[in-house]
Amino acid sequence: MQFTKLPMSAGVGFKPVHYSDLASPGAVTWLEVHAENYMVEGGPRRAMLAELSERFAISAHGVGLSIGGEGRLDPRHIQMLKTLMDWLTPAQFSEHLAWSSHGGAYYNDLLPLPYTKTTLETVCSHINEVQDALGRQMLLENPSSYLFFKESTFTETEFLSEVAHRTGCGMLLDINNVFISATNLCQSAEEYLDAYPLELVGEIHLAGYHEEEIESGILLIDSHSAEVSDPVWALYHRTIGQIGPRPTLIEWDNDVPDFATLEQEAARANAVLQAKAAA
Amino acid sequence: MSRQSDFARAVVDADTPYPDVLSAPVGSSVLRRFNVYRNNVTVSLVESLTEAFPVIAKLVGDAFFAAMAREFILEHPPTSPIMALYGDAFPAWLSRFSPVSNLPYLGEVAQIEQARREAYHSSDQTPFDPALLAGLTPDQLGNLRFGIHPSVRILGTTYPALAIWARNSNEVPLVDAPVGPVLITRPFWSLQMCAAPHGTIQTLEALSGGSKLGDALPETSTAPKILAALFSSGALIERTHAND
Predict the structure, then answer these.
(1) B198 CB contacts (<8 Å, ≥6 apart)?
(2) A109 vs B contacts (CB less than 8 Å)
(3) The pLDDT of residue B242
(4) SS3 string of A115-128?
(5) Residues 6 or more apart from B96 whose CB is under 8 A from it?
(6) Distance from CA of B227 to the nearest CA of A (A)
């Protein structure tokens, strides 16, 4: 079966350890995978994904394009992504407003960029290149932030809106990242969401963070290693109330729990989505 | 130097100051926040090496492994976002890393771990079914040519690396494996490993070069054992015009 759209319900990040839990349908209605994990020639991992893609809509989430990188995108990586997308034909593709490669090295983390006219042009040209190569729209995810760049001349929401306007890309709204950044940078998450291009949201991410004490209070670390926190659920309610149901992902990548725990989180998101759909 | 070069250097090297283009809310330390990135990068790469080389980590202990991995990462950072095979340079690096020179077998054990990862992610192909050979005369058998299954990895060992690997891994029961070639395959969805007879490496090389089976096998009493090892591990595939 070919799924051309993600359903307006909850999905989870797929982990091979949960493969057998997905044998029968439950609260989880779609799956997201990190594209780079499947850029291998064959083997059980790809076979599992191929089988799941017959039963679930799949969202391919890139972590390695380095959209926010200063230099050119790696043409080999774009080609591998295209090969994967042609094989998997996922319902959606998304990437991050961040960089992860520089000078031939890959850092395995999403690193931040300043928001200036120069970086705006680079990011837009990279997104155009990806959308042209893949022949489809991509969604761009907002980062979790710990610092400011002194040279930034746009706010993040202005920057994202302008990127979407210039490239036609959609938005992946990570509400956990919104809350983390707002807390870490002493800003308001609600004001961020009021300024964010909500009408372009094609997918929402919810995840858990980890708290560290620092001299000025609390620093939130985007760890994807815990349940979604209450303030993030509250922001999620608020957002769905404004824009209506959207495909919603429970992201849990580290200290991965048993599938029942993920399913409870998915069911909680489904309850919010169904309440809005019925209203 | 570009902005991102400065940022990247400071992320991997704690002695390089963070770029002065960064700022934090009033009263809060930029360094403490910049260290989040330093920690994410190093910890995630150390974790991926620990997952890739669990037996080496068990042999040297997690704390020593993490310290060693940090040195490796500085010399050999990933060069691609595809982490499934990151660490291919680790076995050879380990063989030269002087703090573990008292454990000279580590490099070969690490080679086994890396070969298992490569075989796991290699392309899928149906191995040759030896039942198809029933009824052939020895001459007819000797005239056949075979291809090599894409998952095949064969390592020559000079230490009992397979036995050390097996005793320290949860994957397989204890095997009493002699020093010699280690054959790793993934004929279907599971990895297989065996201690292969001496001469197996040369036989695979000859078959891969297009030799007939009769010419590829040594003229010694180990020939049937080599043949049995290759067939039972699914190391051979039908030879098509494409790989002629």
Answers:
(1) B180, B181, B222
(2) 11, 37, 40-41, 44
(3) 46
(4) CCHHHHHHHHHHHH
(5) none
(6) 25
- Which of A224, A209, A206, A182 shows the shortest CA–CA distance to A271? A206
Q: CB–CB of B204/B159 below 8 Å? A: no
Closest residue in chain A to residue B19, using alpha carbons only: A149
Residues 101..160 of B with a Cβ closer than 8 Å to A: which? 120-124, 150
- Run of H or E including B107: helix B106-121
Q: Do A221 and B36 touch (CB under 8 A)?
A: yes
**B1 touches A at CB < 8 Å:** no
Q: For chain A, how are helix, strand and coil distributed in percent, rounded to 5?
A: 45, 20, 35
CA distance A188 to A43: 46
Cα separation, B179 vs A213, whole angstroms: 53
State the burial class of residue A20 (Cβ atoms within 10 Å of its Cβ: 0-12, 13-18, 19+).
exposed
State pLDDT tens for residues B168-194.
997 766 667 788 999 999 999 999 999
Q: Is A208's Cβ below 8 Å from some Cβ in B?
A: no
A240-270 pLDDT, tens digit each:
999 999 999 999 999 999 999 999 999 999 9
Chain A residues in contact with B44 (beta carbon < 8 A): 108-109
pLDDT for B34-68, tens place per residue?
999 999 999 999 999 999 999 999 999 999 999 99
Q: Which residues of B touch A147 (CB under 8 A)?
A: 22-24, 30, 33-34
Question: Considering only CA atoms, which of A120, A128, A122, A176 is closest in space to residue A153?
Answer: A120
Look up tokens 């890396």; give the residue. B114
Amino acid at B39: N
Q: Residue A216 — pLDDT band, cuts 50, 70, 90?
A: confident
In chain B, whose CA is at the least distance from the CA of A221?
Answer: B36
Shortest CB distance from A41 goes to which of B7, B44, B123? B123
Is ipTM > 0.90 here? Answer: yes
Task: Give the per-residue pLDDT at B243.
Answer: 46
Q: Is the pLDDT of residue A181 over 50?
A: yes
Residue of A nearest to B33 (CA): A146
